[in-house]
Input
Amino acid sequence: MNLALTITGLALAWAAINGNFSPLNLLFGAAIGLLTSLLLRRWIAHPRVMRRLRRIVSLALLFFWELNVSAVRVAIIVLTPNIRSALRPGIVAFPLSLTTDREITLLANLITLTPGTLSVDVSEDRRVLYVHVLNLKDRDALIAEIANGFERKVQEVFE
Output
């Protein structure tokens, strides 16, 4: 049952990517899905891999949520008649609990890709990430938001 669902999902994904839902294309997508499932069945069935995949999906969903919320916030600022009164730019020193280069790089990129924030620099000892914010209302709230959001999810992915 699980294999059939996986193959069906991969066939539909194949058809969606190609933009062609003809029976022949769906059959071809199912064949590719079956071959992929057979080649990767031991790797995919491993519980650690599935747990990590769920964590990656969770991080991606959080990123897309934050992307949309931040885009709306920036749009509101831009559409404000007196934009100078709406802007409160600032640079915040975010204390890192991440230790490896790949974790810090991923966090910095997620912050930079979110509208209204920009990762500026990492301290020499890699304990502080400097973040520029377009509208800084509360420094502590921003640090808590990043720590409980992106940083926690990045830690979970690399556990």
Remarks:
- The chain has a mean pLDDT of 89.
- Strands lie at 90-95, 117-122, 128-133.
